[in-house]
Structure formats: C-alpha cells, structure tokens
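Hey everyone, long-time lurker, first post.

I ran two proteins through the pipeline my lab uses and got sequence/structure pairs for each. Pasting them in order. The first:
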Amino acid sequence: MIINNNVQAVTGAYQAASSNAARKSYAREIETPKDEAIFSDVGQSFSNLLGELKGLSDVRTEKLDALRPDIENGTYNPSEDDIAAKMLAMLG
C-alpha cells in the first residue's frame, strides 16, 4: 500500500538528486584559472646563489688541519672569551 506522502517524498528526493548532478557536471565544465608566480631576474639569481651556498660546507678545512694536532693531543684550549664571542656572533 503506497501512501501519497511517500510518493511525494520519493519524487522530491529524486528531483533534488537530479538537480545536484546537473550542478556538479556544470561545475566540472567551468575551468578555473591556475595560480602562477613569476620571479624577477634578481629573485632567480638570489635563489640560485642560495642553492649554491647551501651546498657549501661550514667547515674551514685549512683551519681545522692546523688545529688538528692540538685537538688530538688534548692541548687545544680556546679561551672562554673567544668561545663566548663566537657564540654571540652566531646569534646576531
């Protein structure tokens, strides 16, 4: 036995689903513009330079080679002032 309210509810649900499908297919047809970024020559040069700097080592091998014997012998003793000065220089 079908009650009139049930038929109307089913018909209403079918119509809502059909209109949603139409909206979704229409939305797919509209092409949205893509974001694009263009960097200046200076920006590109800076980026290239930064990439090269990241590839460089922080270790100064000449200085390390000169200090290596003292470090290995345990006779390398930098002053507290030198250590503090270097630490402060790294912060600022």
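...and the second, right after it:
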Amino acid sequence: MKIEIRGAEKLSFRERQVVVLKEMGKTTDEICQILKISSSTVATLYNRARSKGYEVVIIIPGNALGLFNEEENDGQSEEES
C-alpha cells in the first residue's frame, strides 16, 4: 500500500507532518507527543492544511485485494464451476 498526498507542495513542513500523522491514524495526543507541540497547535495546523485543499490518495495493488487470483487462470469464474 502506498499513500500519496496530492497538493502537499501547498503545505508548510509542519502542516505536512501533522497531515501525514493524522492520515496514518495517529490521535491528536500522539501527534502532540511525537512533534512536541500542543493540541491546539495540532488542530490549527490540521485545519490550515485542510483549507489549502490537499488530497490523500491510497494506492493498493490489485493482488493485495485478491482481485487477481492465480488459481482462476483457467478462465472460469467460481459461479461457472
């Protein structure tokens, strides 16, 4: 899996840090501890970043989703079997 932040060039370094940690599922308290900043600063940075219109894109290879099962190479779906 790969995460891409489109529009990251619009964000400050600190805003990017907060966005990446938020998108990784970190809580505000965890971000505060990691970056050594207050929760109000985390909220400000995150809201400022959101107002700049970044977009998070998650790229998941098809095989990770089980879309391309090598056992079904004979051309038949499970319903036809």
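Reply from user beta_strand_b:
Welcome! Quick read of the second one: Helices lie at 13-23, 28-35, 39-51. The longest helix spans residues 39-51.
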